[in-house]
Every structure is written in structure tokens, then in C-alpha cells.
């Protein structure tokens, strides 16, 4: 193990994006990043299953994307920056996504912020 990561497992909610996780998430991240392309974004909106098939996603990857299981996606190896693409397409704001990572509702999460009126 990388000595810089010693004890990382004791930090709740911390998921190391290492080479193994990066390699496992490559196909998924390519799919998610591809949502910046209008034709792929439209295909995903109109027929998610066709978009999954085109990207050759496996059943677990499809399940995570379908259900917007943000924590499972990040643990799997999805890049946060690629998850932002999915969030935009599905109409989910960054605060909503971060609240889900924390296991909170948006309202609960916003109470922890010092930004009056933020949404």
C-alpha cells in the first residue's frame, strides 16, 4: 500500500481514486463524459438503455446510473467531474448530489452551509 494512504480506511466517506478504481471506472467515465456531446446526451434522454448498450456498460454500471446512486458511482470509480455531467442531464444540482453523498436531504445539507438562500 502507498504509505501516503496509511490509515485512509479510518476516514469515513473517503474513497481513494487509485489506479485500480480508475481502470474499473474507465468505461463508465467515458460514457458519463460523453454526455457533453449533444447526440449522446439526446440518446440518453430518449432511450437510456440504447445509450448504455452503445457504451457497453455492464448491468451494475447501468443500475447505478439509472438510480443515480451517487455514492455507489463514486466508490466504483466514477470521476466527480463526470458525475456532474450526469447530474446536469438529469436536472440534479451540485448541492443535491453532495447532499446524497452525505446521506442527507437537500434541506438538511443546506442547513450546514453558510449561504443564505442557496439552492
What would your notes on this structure say?
Helix content is 62%, strand content 0%. With 119 residues, it is mainly alpha-helical. It has a domain at 16-90: Dioxygenase LigAB, LigA subunit (Protocatechuate 4,5-dioxygenase, Chain A, Orthogonal Bundle). Helix 1 (19-33) packs parallel to helix 6 (80-90) and helix 2 (38-46) crosses helix 3 (48-55). It is flat. The N and C termini lie far apart (40 Å).
CATH level 1 class label of the domain at 16-90: Mainly Alpha
Uncertain runs: none
Helix-and-strand structural type: mainly alpha
* Large-scale geometry: flat
CATH architecture of the domain at 16-90: Orthogonal Bundle
User: What is the CA-CA span between the terminal residues?
Assistant: 40 Å
Mean pLDDT, to the nearest integer, reads: 90
Instruction: Please give the radius of gyration in angstroms.
Output: 16 Å
**What assembly state would you assign to the polypeptide chains in this entry?**
single chain
Q: Quick one: biggest sheet? A: none
Helix run count: 8
Helix content percent band = 55-70%
Order of helices and strands: HHHHHHHH
Would you give the CATH topology of the domain at 16-90?
A: Protocatechuate 4,5-dioxygenase, Chain A
Strand proportion, as a percent range, falls in under 5%
Q: Count the strands?
A: 0
CATH homologous superfamily classification of the domain at 16-90: Dioxygenase LigAB, LigA subunit
Amino acid at each position: 500500500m502507498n504509505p501516503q494512504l496509511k490509515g485512509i480506511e479510518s476516514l469515513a466517506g473517503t474513497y481513494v481514486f487509485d489506479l485500480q478504481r480508475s481502470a474499473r471506472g474507465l468505461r463508465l467515465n467515458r460514457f458519463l463524459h460523453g454526455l457533453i456531446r449533444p447526440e449522446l446526451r439526446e440518446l440518453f434522454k430518449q432511450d437510456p438503455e440504447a445509450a448504455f448498450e452503445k457504451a457497453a456498460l455492464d448491468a451494475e454500471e447501468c443500475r447505478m446510473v439509472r438510480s443515480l446512486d451517487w455514492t455507489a458511482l463514486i466508490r466504483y470509480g466514477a470521476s466527480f467531474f463526470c458525475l456532474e455531467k450526469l447530474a446536469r442531464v438529469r436536472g440534479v444540482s451540485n448541492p443535491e448530489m453532495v447532499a446524497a453523498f452525505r446521506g442527507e436531504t437537500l434541506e438538511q445539507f443546506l442547513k450546514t452551509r453558510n449561504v443564505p438562500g442557496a439552492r
